[in-house]
Amino acid sequence: MKLHMLTHQDIDGIIRLSQSVGWDYDQAEVTTILNSSKVFGHKNEASEVVSSAAIIPYGEKTASIGMVIVQEEYRGKGLAMALMKGCIGQVDEQTIIQLIATAYGQPMYEKIGFQMAGAVKKVIAPTHFLNNHTLISSPQVVPFQQKDFQEVVALDEKAFGANRTKFLSERIRQSKDCLVLKNKEGKITGYGLSIFGQVYTILGPIIAPDTQSAFQIISQLKRREGTGVRIDILSQQNELQDLLVAGGFELINEPPMMMLHSDKIPTRTGQLFAIASQAFG
């Protein structure tokens, strides 16, 4: 099957593909991915999208691969390997590429040369409220304004280890809530986003100077009525995990973070508490 570059005309097909494997991508999420990355896929004789993968560049030296899906009846035909080669071929051969692996995909990623470099913890709350006794309110957590953008980008680059200007512009536009944490001098020291999905309100990225500040941001981000809340926190953020579990969250799984062209995550400040999502890293 021929490898295609997928476009906005394929959004409905990508959504149907994700639903076929139990994932909950919606139009807003897929649009952000298409606007931030190059997306590849295969189509069957009926022009239905039966596979997908996206490569999201972050600056010139780092990229993330996500939304790797192959419809079940088309597995075992080499489509996933073709997707990965298509994505990897879009960046310089020295670019550090990261991804969050599924159990199904991990053996293939290892075959390509990806190595374990960490993990993320997927935590979910079944309702849209944290327990009342855990809520923290802070007058220093305020709504994002467009004039804050470059300061947020600079903070994010230090915390994440790569420049994500294009992605952040798209993600903030998609978000239903974007909050920034300011110190007494008015300098931005943290930020967080909430994204309303079909099944979950996704909280992330969450960047903060310390765990309590991260929890302050999480506590004040908007949630959609009637949906659960999902946060993908870095595996080393055990203190934040304890606070979230006390607030009604449950650890669902801990998928590995894998890297190509490096055996470790790019240098970070330790202030990244939760990633944007497993698709974006």
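^ that was protein a. below is b, sequence first then the tokens
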Amino acid sequence: MKNIKSLLLALLIQLPLLNTAIAQDNKPALVPLPSVDDFTRGEDGWALGLGLGVEYESAYEGSDEFGFEIQPAGAVQWRDGNHIYYFAGEALGWRSLVAENWLLDASVGFDEGREEGDSDDGRLDGLGDQDESFELVFQARRSFTSDWRYWLVGRVVASDEGSLGLFGVGRRFGEQVDGTGSEINLVVVVHDSDYANKGFGIDAKQSAASGLAETNLSGGIRSVGVDYNYRHNINKHWQIYGEALFEYYSSEVRDSPIARNNYEAEVGLSVIYTF
């Protein structure tokens, strides 16, 4: 373990030097934001990035249990000018730079739901399993500057189990235009009553089976949060992507017996090969 830590430290020290060495070979991305992957290197046609990531995250929304999970990383993309069509994980979508300062993104994907077995400590026993469901996601970013240094972001997630909205501001660090560097976003998240009760509500049947108090949530503010994204090209084909997320729940969500923690947190690191 000591040797692994030393190796990771040495790699982190070398990353800025490596980035400088290959910067002149990189072409502009659709937008220069680390959170918006673009494997096309500024060229029209097909692009592919494949990799694996490891995430350390809450076992479920509101959980005080954390664990590691291996996830696929990357995407299949088709670029046509200022439009990129993509398939990433379980999401199929389109994003476009519709004007110099406007980025739109629409996709359809899956919500994985929740299972009683997600809690190793039996915190979800009696609540039943939630099935996967389709989600429609629409996102818009409006930059204040031509170099996407500061922006506003809005996102709406809609499904047959309710809706969620996210609104915030972001800032990009670094001078690269190839999508590498880092960025941070400060956001407020709201949800309707259906979405709130899907994650944190307890109906009469679940209450009787689990022994937890019956809980019915109203719509409104769900949380405030911050997320940080980092992307670095090791060389022409290999890149590293990292993300850290912290979400602090509103008082109504914190009062739910399902919320064993006042917050949700996640840290992830992926290694991706671009073809």
